[in-house]
Design a protein that fits this description.
By secondary structure, this protein is an alpha/beta fold. It has twelve helices and eight strands. A six-stranded parallel beta sheet has the order 4-3-8-7-5-6, sandwiched between helices. It has a two-stranded antiparallel sheet with strand order 1-2. A hairpin with a 2-residue loop joins strand 1 and strand 2. The longest helix has 15 residues. It starts with 9 loop residues before the first strand and ends in an 11-residue tail after the last helix. The mean pLDDT is 85.
Length: 256
């Protein structure tokens, strides 16, 4: 793993070192050094204690950004520590701005569905953002331990400097880790979950004010309650985890 901790400001929470700077600094770092970036939401931390491949993958990430507004608020209230929040949506918007400004459109896209792929093409035409259809890959439903040799060949063919993985938390971090370890070069791999869908229209967009005031979770809950109520219930464990473990990595659950 590329040692970022001596180069950039970080804050350790539950064993993960989160970048503690501005969004443009995070984008510039990934653009310059490659590796893979993760943006765990508040519902992801319980998975640290249940899913060993996920735990290994997220701890090996080259850069983690604090997407979870709940985590940021809890750290301030329970630990008296401040960390700068960078949502996955904000990160992706700034990344696209940089790439478009530089005229760099060579990106490989890993998408969750055919619908998401079509939404991406529609968005690219509206925005004048060139996308090569051959650089799009609709991911299968991955097993517990994520590997995908079928994905390596198309990425190796063009060797794009950026790979965007937008297939959802859990699988995407494992896939980012797999790609970094198995590709013959080091692209910047951005594991940003639903953020791409907010931009392209594949998912209901989060208004700027909701993202700015850490209310993206509430917006998604109202939009799709049957999907997000079960997910958000997992976030109820986060206050206890931060209070009990603070900077330390929580142990795996017994019997897992």
């Amino acid at each position: 793993m590329f040692d970022v901790h001596s180069m950039i400001p970080t804050r350790q929470i539950l064993g993960l070192r989160f970048f503690n700077g501005g969004v443009d600094e995070a984008v510039a770092f990934m653009h310059r050094h490659g590796g893979y970036l993760v943006a765990p939401s508040g519902t992801c931390f319980a998975r640290l204690r249940e899913d060993e491949p996920y735990r290994r993958a997220i701890l090996s990430a080259d850069l983690a950004i604090a997407d979870s507004g709940l985590m940021v608020v809890l750290c301030r209230l329970l630990r008296g520590e401040s960390i700068q929040r960078i949502s996955g949506l904000k990160y992706l918007e700034h990344l696209f701005g940089k790439l478009k400004g530089e005229g760099t459109g060579n990106i490989f896209w890993v998408l969750p569905s055919e619908r998401a792929q079509q939404k991406l093409f529609d968005w690219s035409r509206r925005e004048g953002f060139s996308i090569n259809r051959e650089n799009c890959y609709v991911a299968p439903q991955y097993a517990w331990d994520v590997q995908d040799r079928n994905l390596l060949a198309p990425i190796e063919k063009d060797r794009p400097p950026h790979v965007i993985i937008a297939i959802g938390s859990g699988a995407q971090e494992k896939l980012g880790f797999y790609l970094r370890e198995n590709l013959s070069y080091r692209p910047a791999i951005h594991c940003i979950g639903a953020a791409l869908g907010f931009i392209t229209g594949d998912q209901r967009a989060i208004p700027d004010w909701a993202d700015r005031f850490f209310l993206g979770w509430l917006w998604r809950l109202v939009a799709q309650p049957t999907i997000f109520i079960p997910r958000l219930s997992r976030a109820l464990e986060l206050p206890w985890l931060i209070w009990k473990y603070g900077e330390k990595l929580p142990p795996m659950r017994r019997g897992v």
